[in-house]
Amino acid sequence: MTDTIRWGMVGGGLNGFIGEVHRLAARLDGGFALVAGCFSSDAARNRESAGQVGVAPDRVYDDFAQMARSEAERPDGIRAVSIVTPNHLHFPAARAFLEAGIDVICDKPLTTTLEEALELESLAREQGRILAVTYNYTGNAMIRLARSLVAEGALGDLRLVQVEYLQDWLARNIEQEGQKQASWRTDPQQAGRAGCLGDIGVHAYNLAHFVTGLPARRVSADLATFVPGRRVDDNVQVTLDFGNGTRGALWASQVAVGSENALRLRLVGSRASIAWEQEHPNQLRYAEYGEAPRTLSRNGAGFPPSLQRFCRVPAGHPEGYLEAFANLYGEIRRGLLTGQGDFTDVADAVDDMAFIEACLASNDNDNRWQPLMR
Amino acid sequence: MTDTIRWGMVGGGLNGFIGEVHRLAARLDGGFALVAGCFSSDAARNRESAGQVGVAPDRVYDDFAQMARSEAERPDGIRAVSIVTPNHLHFPAARAFLEAGIDVICDKPLTTTLEEALELESLAREQGRILAVTYNYTGNAMIRLARSLVAEGALGDLRLVQVEYLQDWLARNIEQEGQKQASWRTDPQQAGRAGCLGDIGVHAYNLAHFVTGLPARRVSADLATFVPGRRVDDNVQVTLDFGNGTRGALWASQVAVGSENALRLRLVGSRASIAWEQEHPNQLRYAEYGEAPRTLSRNGAGFPPSLQRFCRVPAGHPEGYLEAFANLYGEIRRGLLTGQGDFTDVADAVDDMAFIEACLASNDNDNRWQPLMR
Amino acid sequence: MTDTIRWGMVGGGLNGFIGEVHRLAARLDGGFALVAGCFSSDAARNRESAGQVGVAPDRVYDDFAQMARSEAERPDGIRAVSIVTPNHLHFPAARAFLEAGIDVICDKPLTTTLEEALELESLAREQGRILAVTYNYTGNAMIRLARSLVAEGALGDLRLVQVEYLQDWLARNIEQEGQKQASWRTDPQQAGRAGCLGDIGVHAYNLAHFVTGLPARRVSADLATFVPGRRVDDNVQVTLDFGNGTRGALWASQVAVGSENALRLRLVGSRASIAWEQEHPNQLRYAEYGEAPRTLSRNGAGFPPSLQRFCRVPAGHPEGYLEAFANLYGEIRRGLLTGQGDFTDVADAVDDMAFIEACLASNDNDNRWQPLMR
Amino acid sequence: MTDTIRWGMVGGGLNGFIGEVHRLAARLDGGFALVAGCFSSDAARNRESAGQVGVAPDRVYDDFAQMARSEAERPDGIRAVSIVTPNHLHFPAARAFLEAGIDVICDKPLTTTLEEALELESLAREQGRILAVTYNYTGNAMIRLARSLVAEGALGDLRLVQVEYLQDWLARNIEQEGQKQASWRTDPQQAGRAGCLGDIGVHAYNLAHFVTGLPARRVSADLATFVPGRRVDDNVQVTLDFGNGTRGALWASQVAVGSENALRLRLVGSRASIAWEQEHPNQLRYAEYGEAPRTLSRNGAGFPPSLQRFCRVPAGHPEGYLEAFANLYGEIRRGLLTGQGDFTDVADAVDDMAFIEACLASNDNDNRWQPLMR
């Protein structure tokens, strides 16, 4: 308990979604103490939010720049901060805390442009600070198992990487009805040029990258906007070339009526394939060539001891979204305390931004193959 | 945060299972502070466990009786205690805390005999204390939805209640290999006369009772012991009569090779049926007569606002075992703070014991119908 | 093609269900030529039915007794007859054809009483004729695989046999609305004393017997009638004892709202378990103790060559109800031509009747264990 | 029975696959009599095959051209012929029979080039003959239901069409081991330039076209060959633009380890979505925006009477691959007898060839959008 990390938060005021998720994840992990925050640009809401989450009044800040400076000066100042604002604020906030020498945990995507991401990468390197990006699905125990199977060659030569992420909450124009989550996510000023692509497409890409260890070399992408009046894409089809004979495809949609949060990853190798669905996250289908497919389960038969730390309860006792998120916080905590954390760091987050920009470029260029820039 | 409940624990030392689960659940709920404990009869392990969970040395006790007395006298003494020992200690520990005027949260089953349970029921009533029993699956949001559908008549006249709970971890004689969880659960001195019946059969029965609101009137039961050398049952088949034209069956097994923790409930009414599986707990199958069946989801389309408090994250973001357990702790907390909690209290826990005893009696009597006594 | 069997039918007039199924199955098998029939007690419908299925007018008979005599005398008379009438006519019709020296294929259950079944068994033995009973689900390729796995010991010692058969077409009193299939099945004069038990419960029992090779030794049964005004049971719960340490349960229901034709078999042994669902009949779940469960598929990886004859198309090309039925006709044809057919014969069909009678007796006797008589 | 169609076959000798499937389908349909054939270029096998399927020796032909001429001259000559050879023979054989005035049933794809397909289209029109192509999955009852739902507007504006067809039987180089089915399918001389694309990709495309009624306007395609030494593609990713705001993607693979015959179609509209999987063909997932998704079943609740003719048995009694194929034969028969058949005719089959050629062109041109030519 002495290793508890003093922790702050930017964004995450009442009635938001992702800030509370970060807090629940940290609480489930058990190694973070939320002691400072700048929860909202609305001063009253900021105070109220702080009160509800137990942050003392003198650690509540009107703006993140002030928070970074003040906390850096306090002897009991925060060790790390989580940034859970709309996308366009990730960059200035992360920069402020990195410059103040405070480790940063940032919600995805890291920034709204590749250029900003590269600048943060340089800054983090200069400052010697962690810049972790919370691609939470990478915290799932079965995703860790999948990555381990790929790494040990169980799949043989990796041939195909298919990933899809389907939601339907933007199937209608709810941003015009004032739905807060929808409003900023479909506003290019706040979300960036990529809509569905930047919100969940990048989740899908990052997951594929995380599990395979392979960044895409080039992409061919078709972005579509189905909902009249929407200013960003709400569906994206991407063909992927990972080089060395590995191909794939990515489909992300926020107009996929009948899908809640259907992130699904399938990998095919020369020896075996695996498939995972986020909505039933405790199972992994594993099929060897010439064998009947098997359903592996979290903490079940054959689950490797090396991945035990990503499990809290036995097989058959389902873990879910928050547990995966908490696992990620656990890894970030390990990174903060020992330097050995296993999570998406700034280098991979930069690659995610390169993916987004390449998709936009291909879409603008008759769907042609477009290399990922770095 | 001012409503945080000062909380103690009996049992739950390191390397145990259910104690850590109670702690995780309480932490996820966020309203309990663990400040006292008697975690193990082994003094060294008791101290070590306390240290790991952050209980101060002066609040660690060598025995639960002393703990009950001391905490009752302290001005900052615990408001409630969780008892997470093997079954045979539930009764004396619960009695000690109830007599000391401390509310009790007890793992299931309440006791090892109906007689003991009835005594605790009287005591809790006399003392005006809560005696909650953690039938954790009743905390699942979809189980709450199921109960709500039954209560509002969506199923019509309830005809059939089928429940099964299948595990395979006792398919071999691991108690002779020193597996701690197996050892006490298969020892009649610690677990009581009922083995599988008392460990998970009663979970299944309680769940059926909770969702339907109906206790069984009579049972016809066949208990079997498949594993050579085992001293308690490891499989039970029960035919159920709930009266008023509602029948059913229960199957619980701990030798069901290929099943991890497969608790499944199906209800059939004259108008509709529902089905739920604990291993995929965010869905509920709902089929109206003459209609295509629907898959309802936690927090999904049509999920009632009145049950929102059992959800932490949106539809498609799976919640699991710990979230359900945390929901139960949340209800117990509401009970402690407002008297309005919705959980299995001592009266229903007594009925669970009556169920166990009736099954044992039927099995001893040629499978004949046996009424539940109270 | 020279081995085509000259074949007749009793029952199976237009607008019936099972007669047409027998004809489709025989046609898919390809080894039967329908040349004679007594399709209906209504003379006009009898002629019309014959015309539609291509039976020549001189081979259409007003009653089955006359058909048996005439066909036995013709040099080109039928080799075998299928009896697809309501249950109460199975006995007299089967007797007539057996006495005439004609092999009999009878729909299930064989008769309406055990006594009749025993008489047919004697008669078939005296006459040296085949008396096959079309428990069609036993023709499914995966059921054959399941039986083969049990026989070769893949499951280890067989511990549990759980079978259920759920339908909902009798959830309301459609027999009073003149639905023909419902009318005779709920009329004790035509169906026998057992309703759901005799219609589908016996299917479930037979399937368990077929796959395990074990008849039940004793049963404890609860029959219920949920639909007001119905004269036979529409739901049955049976606890099963197969002797030698094998137990089980059977649930059959025709009021299970939301179930179409959900026959499901689960076997648990000391080494492995298997599970099969008729509505997805091309798969079989196979779980070895300590291994991740596998999904075996018809004609898929590891499917044994010895069972190839039960498959028409490759893995992934689903076969269904008619294919299973046709497989059974193929086995009966093999029996007729070579004496080597593998199907439910009269001895097992007698056991099915003993099961029905034991269930009725246990239900009449406070659910007590009741041995199967022979 | 008087309407039975005299029918011939080109290809389909012993040990082949698809010829026997056509014969089983026709037999299950019940309206075709196989009376002539040219089953193999090997004279001995041709005779032997004819004998096994019951074709008289004087109706067995050494080559299809002779067969077409002779049968056209006979008063009892065949009304229709099925061509079930490797792809490269479809064109000359179909031409021969069309020229002889005989209706043609051809396996897919129609030809190996768009040019040939267009020539056959002209010829069929001139001759006034049917040229049906057996895209068998379009015969499935639930596919018919899907098409009907789209047509009646249940999905609203159609936005997305996702189709995939995954197999793994070509995951290794079995063509070099002499596997007959693999050999011709991977030989550009026999199969055409498209490998996986022409074998199953076109099935997937045709299915999407059939259900939506929409041909693709343009495609962006990536063809890959994963297995060393293979001369044709074995995996294809296609992005689809159907015009009028409908987009989609198609993935076909014959190296998808762990997939048997996984054809899956998903359609998303502004009001609802549907999803169908060929390996579980009796169900269709239907999800309306804002409603819990439903599982529709063949012949189940709400199944439209107008589609009854595509069902042989009740809901819950699975139909499969052969039943769908037989339905298609039934529709072709209706076409032959009444002119009202509902099946893929030559016009749509020409569009399928245009799809193949556009994919090849896009793949050769940096994945750029490529319009379908006609």
What is this structure, in a nutshell?
With 374 residues, chain A is an alpha/beta fold. Chain A contains 11 helices and 14 strands.
Question: What do these coordinates show?
Answer:
The longest helix of chain A is centred in the C-terminal third of the chain and has 18 residues. Chain A is globular and about 65 Å long. In chain A, a hairpin with a 2-residue loop joins strand 10 and strand 11. The mean pLDDT of chain A is 96. Chain A has two domains: 129 residues, Rossmann fold (3-Layer(aba) Sandwich); 194 residues, Dihydrodipicolinate Reductase, domain 2. Chain A starts with a strand and ends with a strand. Chain A is α/β, with parallel strands linked by helices. In chain A, strands 13-12-11-10-6-9-8-7-14 form a nine-stranded mixed β-sheet. Chain A contains eleven helices and 14 strands. Chains in contact: A-B, A-C, A-D, B-C, B-D, C-D. At the A-D interface, strand 6, strand 7, strand 8, strand 9 and strand 11 of A face strand 6, strand 7, strand 8, strand 9 and strand 11 of D.
